[in-house]
Amino acid sequence: MTDENTYTCKVSEDKGGMRLDRFLTDELPEMSRNRVQALIDEGQITGTTKKKIGASLKIAIGEVYTIEIPPVVSAEPEPQDIPLDVLFEDEHLLVINKPIRLVVHPAAGNWDGTLVNALLFHCGDSLSGIGGVARPGIVHRLDKDTSGVMVVAKTDQAHRHLAEQFELHTIERAYKAVVWGIPSPREERIVGHIGRSPMNRKKMAVLDFGGKFAATNYKVDHVIGRAASLVECRLETGRTHQIRVHMAAIGNGVVGDPAYGGGGHNKMKLASREVRKRIEEFSHQALHAYLIGFIHPKTGEMMRFEAPLTSNINRLIEELAKV
């Protein structure tokens, strides 16, 4: 160890051939294997050779590894003055239109600059602790690169009531997605259990065995040129990446989706070079939560809110219409 935040470990003769994560866990008993693996994934561990660092790397005798421990981050999110597009607000809840790139709550790699940080600033101390210290007020989430409407609780009563509506699947939620090709049939209910992909643990997949039940109802809004369609998707369940996984499973991945959006390569051959370049510059999945409906936790009133497609998704549609 060189200082309190940096460790060095040299591979002795009896440790040659071990997995890197197991070796470091043995050398640094105060760290769990999960913690070591997280540090590897975050790029905090380097070796003296140019071999690519990975948890399963078989280490060589004499190799020296340096482990940098990042500074401790407060467990409680701090308020930050981040602008919010507020569609509705009262003393019980607020409804916002979330932009892309805004992470919902703090996590590894995004400890600040999140929706939670913005909410704490916007609502003040009244929000602190509602729904838990790490995720105050949050009753559902959207992926970082999915835009659209979200409801946030401002009181414990509102949080409990809204959470129950989500659990019972009585919340009305509808999305618009630009997908490759034309789904067939043009209106259908997709049913498929979703869980971690056995081929890539960082992705979700429709599984033959295991996973959690998931159902998505889609309907083609209109066809875009020769390559894509605008589709409305309504969720019966709320699984991780559900729409993206289900649409990819039927061969109509969401345009711009880096994980599941395959299917556009052949379609793009129909486009001119200029149009193809502009479409390829679109940098996130074309998925937007355009509608949410719920019962107000205090008044009992049915409330519905909509947010129009973002300007960048509209520009993408304009370019795809030229294909």
Describe this structure in words.
21% of the residues lie in helices and 25% in strands. The chain has 323 residues and is of the alpha+beta class. It has 3 domains: 6-68, RNA-binding S4 domain (Structural Genomics Hypothetical 15.5 Kd Protein In mrcA-pckA Intergenic Region, Chain A), CATH 3.10.290.10; 86-167, Pseudouridine synthase (2-Layer Sandwich); 172-320, Pseudouridine synthase, CATH 3.30.2350.10. The strands form 3 sheets. Strands 4, 5, 6, 7, 8, 11, 12, 13 and 14 form a 9-stranded mixed β-sheet that branches. Strands 1-3-2 form a 3-stranded antiparallel β-sheet, with no helix packed on it.
Q: What is the helix/strand order?
A: EHHEEEEHEHEEEEEEHHHEEH
Computed CA radius of gyration, to the nearest angstrom: 23 Å
Contiguous runs where pLDDT drops below 50 for at least 5 residues: none
Give the rounded overall mean pLDDT. Answer: 90
Q: The CATH topology of the largest domain is what?
A: Pseudouridine synthase
The total strand number stands at 14
Q: Sum up the overall morphology in one term.
A: globular
Give the second-level CATH assignment, the architecture of the largest domain.
2-Layer Sandwich
Largest sheet: 9 strands, mixed
Content of β-strand: 25-35%
User: What is the CATH C level class of the largest domain, in words?
Assistant: Alpha Beta
| Name given to the CATH homologous superfamily of the largest domain | Pseudouridine synthase
Task: For the record, give the distance between the C-alpha atoms at the N and C termini, rounded to a whole number.
Answer: 59 Å
Count of helical segments? 8
Number of domains: 3
| Helical fraction | 10-25%
SS-based class: alpha+beta
